[in-house]
Amino acid sequence: MKRISLILSVILFSVIGCQKDLVQIPQTTKTADNFYSNETELEEAVKGVYATLQFTGNYNTAMPAIGELPGEDAYDETPANDNGYYGQLDDINVISQNGIIQDNWADSYTGIQRANIVLNRIKDITYKDNNLKNARIGEMKFIRALYYFNLVRIYGDVPLVTTEISNPLASFGQTRAAKIDVYKQIEADLNEAILLLPIRTVANKMRVVKTAAQTLLGKVKLTQKDYASAETLLLAVENSGVHQLLADVTTVFPVANELNDEIIFSVQFASGLNSNSKGSDAYRMFNPTGRVVGSMTGTKGHGVLKSSFYNLYDATDKRKNVYVGAIASGIGYNNKIAVPATVVTDAASDWVVLRYADVILMLAEIENELAKPTQALSYLNMIRTRAGLSSFSSSDKTEIFNEIDLQRRKELVWEGHRWFDLLRQDRVQTVLGVSDVNKLLMPLPASQIATDPSLKQNPGY
């Protein structure tokens, strides 16, 4: 793995905008060409693609922050700290020099390049089990689609790279592809992944499986307001029989029960490994500065919850003090991340990207949009019933939508959905009072614009 990381990091250096080491590429490319020569080596490369999901700019801290902080429930308790990067997300006033945005862009394209390398090389490699080879192709297609789905929602038009870049000079001059073309590629990748990926079993539940690709494509279709297609995909997940809502909400997020039947896809972290470097930094970054558990201190307060949001949970709501908690001051916090057992930067909790509860709530929203209130209420009340709440009843589309929206906030809090929900529903301006439509997209990183003038900045930045 060290050898692979060194090879890939040099090949990918151009993606993060540095020309200093370009002269190293010919020799490094030759080494990489020789290395990817058999199934064992390709399997190591596949692990390297999964590893990018754990990067700071992806699901360690950047994607959670981007998905939650601009919303109405989370906020930055210490906005001036850490160069004001998290505070800018909270204020929906991000500048192009923001380090979170720079990490997100660079780490996303690193993951895309690694996936492209595997997809380029694997076709010429013989696997003992061709089904395994097909599964790996499906996994890489899914991860590439996931990265592009994140990028297109955050930045709008983005460079669309689907082939391996072996010469860094080829990465310059990549103009931004139109959103419609990016979505076409996302859908193509996910449709192929659905055909190639296996169903979920005990043996493969830690990897990308068929229902993960179906769920992600369903979310892509919902984002584009193609409700009929989204319904078909998400019903396939429901009817697969491999996922369920766990009866007890206290069992959904504990480290000891990770990869349970409610989890469709998660980015895995582990504590106490490699000098405590394989855990997540989410606990430190997003917990209140005044929260002290045992001897664990050093939290940054960059993603706490408003006391008004914590108080939205009824006293009888089983999710209260399970999904969320509150300190004596009333500030709330995400309780889905376990307290680290080693150091504050080494949380063991996986980051859940796709969860069956989200599928149920998306289906509720879709059925409501398709004028099927009975079905919508059925899905909505699955979530309410598990939470210990009485059934909700209404025949009014707006009332049903508002209740679904409230349950999305309370069920999926701090799973990185809120900002993207408001974007896809065209409600950022009404819910958050954002008057500048240019703020609906983040700026491209200034470092990228400076390195490659062919990249044009988003309006207003």
Let me know the average pLDDT. 93
| Envelope shape | globular
Number of helices: 19
Oligomer: single chain
Q: Could you describe the largest sheet, including whether it forms a barrel?
A: 2 strands, antiparallel
CATH class of the domain at 1-70 and 99-197: Mainly Alpha
**Total beta-strand segments:** 6
Structural summary, described in words:
This protein is mainly alpha-helical and 461 residues long. It contains 19 helices and six strands. β4 (324-326) and β5 form a beta hairpin. It starts with a helix and ends in a 10-residue tail after the last helix.
Give a brief rundown of this model.
With 461 residues, this protein is mostly helical. 48% of the residues lie in helices and 4% in strands.
Which terms would index this structure?
461 residues; mainly alpha; Serine Threonine Protein Phosphatase 5, Tetratricopeptide repeat; two-stranded antiparallel ribbon; two-stranded antiparallel sheet; 6 strands; 48% helix; 4% strand; disordered N terminus
